[in-house]
């Protein structure tokens, strides 16, 4: 048998022609008419446009809130806040960074059903059923005991064995115990009062925005919390320092997100108000 390879042979490319409809059938398992292809492309384009508009709406919403906070787009009605209302807004700002809950509703959240529902969801995530009575109870607890009660027990411990028993009882981590000592060094008298009082402002802010508490009652509680802040601290930075330690204690780890937001906000119109501003019921 001859097994010679014919090296003189020239390879030839054979091109076969597939009909248009056969090609479409091989792609989708069925025959697509030209109008169906065009309709499909148009559908994809419409979906992309809707997605872009949706994302633009979300970005615009949060950009607007940020602009209001930083004074770039402050409505005239917000510029006319009384000094007492302005102070309450500034004192609430550490939690505003997280969820925009404040009795001084500069975003008109309460006018929107979606905004109200969001406030309800945020409140019930951390405080239980949103009712006026529950909100008043939680705010009162923050102003009279709160997390700071644990700090006071820590400070009153008489021995390392006493601290060990408290730690076991509370279920605290090494980090939380070290943070209690840090509070003792930095804020020996106040401890976590800053954290508790700002949380009280968040509670009544959420109750007001969620529609279960009227402005008069919510603002009176907020005024009480702000007066306690003035009694215990000497400046905005002083208050936020205590708040930040309490926030980290609650989270169980070092978190500086709210502190960074505060430092950014500190340069805005929100904090263009003196710490020792007289707070008056007539200005609520």
Descriptors:
mainly alpha
Query: Which residues form runs of ≥5 with pLDDT under 50?
Result: 1-8, 23-27
Q: What percent of residues are in strands?
A: under 5%
User: How many strand segments?
Assistant: 0
The share of residues in helices is: 55-70%
**Helix count?**
13
Describe this structure in words.
The chain has 284 residues and is mostly helical. Helices cover 66% and strands 0% of the residues. The protein starts with 19 loop residues before the first helix and ends in a 19-residue tail after the last helix. The model is unreliable at 1-8 and 23-27 (pLDDT under 50).
Blueprint of the fold:
Blueprint: H1 20-28, H2 34-69, H3 76-79, H4 83-99, H5 113-127, H6 132-144, H7 148-156, H8 160-170, H9 174-186, H10 193-209, H11 215-232, H12 236-251, H13 257-265
Provide a short characterization of the protein structure:
The chain has 284 residues and is an all-alpha fold. It has helices at 20-28, 34-69, 76-79, 83-99, 113-127, 132-144, 148-156, 160-170, 174-186, 193-209, 215-232, 236-251, 257-265. Helix 4 (83-99) packs across helix 10 (193-209).
């Amino acid at each position: 048998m001859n097994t010679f390879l014919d090296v003189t042979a020239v390879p030839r490319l054979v091109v076969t022609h597939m009909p248009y409809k056969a090609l479409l059938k091989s792609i989708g398992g069925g025959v697509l008419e030209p109008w169906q292809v065009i309709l499909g492309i148009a559908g994809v384009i419409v979906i992309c446009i809707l997605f872009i508009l949706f994302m633009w709406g979300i970005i615009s919403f949060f950009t607007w809130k940020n602009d209001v906070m930083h004074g770039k787009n402050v409505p005239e009605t917000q510029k006319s806040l009384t000094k007492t209302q302005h102070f309450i807004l500034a004192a609430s700002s550490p939690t505003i960074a997280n969820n925009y809950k404040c009795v001084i509703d500069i975003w008109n959240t309460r006018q929107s059903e979606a905004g109200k529902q969001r406030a309800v969801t945020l409140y019930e995530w951390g405080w239980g059923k949103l009712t006026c009575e529950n909100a008043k109870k939680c705010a009162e607890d923050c102003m009279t005991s709160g997390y700071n009660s644990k700090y006071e027990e820590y400070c009153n411990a008489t021995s390392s064995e006493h601290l060990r028993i408290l730690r076991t009882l509370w279920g605290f981590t090494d980090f939380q115990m070290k943070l209690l000592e840090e509070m003792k060094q930095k804020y020996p008298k106040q401890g976590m009062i800053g954290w508790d009082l700002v949380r009280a402002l968040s509670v009544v802010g959420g109750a007001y925005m969620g529609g279960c508490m009227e402005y008069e009652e919510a603002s009176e509680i907020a005024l009480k919390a702000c007066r306690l802040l003035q009694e215990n601290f000497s400046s905005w930075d002083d208050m936020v320092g205590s708040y930040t330690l309490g926030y980290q204690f609650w989270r169980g780890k070092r978190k500086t997100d709210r502190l960074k937001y505060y430092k950014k906000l500190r340069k805005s119109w929100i904090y263009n108000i003196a710490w020792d501003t007289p707070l008056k019921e007539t200005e609520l």
